[in-house]
Amino acid sequence: MKKLIDKLIEKLLALPLKQKYLLGFVVVVLLLAAVKPFVYPTEEGSDEAIFEENVVTQNLSHDKKKHHRILSVPNYKAAFPDSQSVQIVAANKWGVRPVKNREDAEARKKELVYVGESPYYHVDKLNSSIPYLVPRAALLLQDIGQAFYDSLYMKGVPLNQLIVTSIMRSMDDVKKLQRHNGNATDNSCHLYGTTFDICYNRYHALDQEVRNDTLKWVLSEVLRDIRRDKRAYIKYEVKQGCFHMTVR
User: Fold this and answer.
1) To the nearest whole number, what is the mean pLDDT of the chain?
2) Structural domains of the chain, ranges and CATH numbers in brackets
3) Residue 97 to residue 105: CA distance in whole angstroms
4) CA–CA distance, 213 with 200 (Å, rounded to integer)
């Protein structure tokens, strides 16, 4: 290093003033680089060492993202108790006049929204209902599906779509149901386009299949928040294996 500096000084003295200045600057930089390890040694515990350690730690913690815990709800029936008598009031408030059949529903597009396809949920094959909702209920369904995706991501669970099993029923649908199901009511909330069912024991896998209980726990958290925000009345249906809900 000393020989190199001596040669640079010789050349520096032989150069014009402007070039002397530039080369002099280079010599100073080299001198500082040469003496730094002796004057300012980087020891364990020094500010520089701590800074480097913090950078490495931050990078590692970024790669290993901490996922949120899955908590579910303490009791499904207690968390989602809203019966037919409660939901029918909201259905009458926000719903449309019951449709006679599918053709009638399609003719009333100003009042109803088609919900047969969405990236946020999967619609099951509908045997006793048609894929229409009032705009308020359609937005609720989409928001539930999106919140479910977000929650799965934050908890580190592979993406699965919700499955919608029942939507709007026409008067013809209700008559058909009553032939096979004595409990089917004439004044179902599904008649008004405000109500839909999401099953809790089946899901549509996008990444990979997950234990149904895990997905049910996540879904219950999402629906609990929806109900707390007073966006829907929700009933936990044991026999039908679904969450039955009406927009508020």
Assistant:
1) 82
2) 2-63 (no CATH), 76-247 (3.30.1380)
3) 10
4) 8
Helix spans in the chain (H): 2-14, 17-39, 47-63, 76-79, 84-94, 102-106, 135-154, 171-180, 212-228
Instruction: Determine whether 20 is exposed, middle or buried from the number of CB atoms within 10 Å of its CB (0-12, 13-18, 19+).
Output: middle
Element (H, E) at 132: strand 132-133
Assign 117 a pLDDT band (cuts: 50, 70, 90).
Answer: confident
Identity of the residue numbered 56: V
Q: pTM score, two decimals? A: 0.71
| pLDDT tens digits, 179-189 | 876 656 788 99
The structure tokens listed for 215 are 């997905």
For Cα atoms 232, 153, 78, give the angle at the middle one, nearest 5 degrees: 35
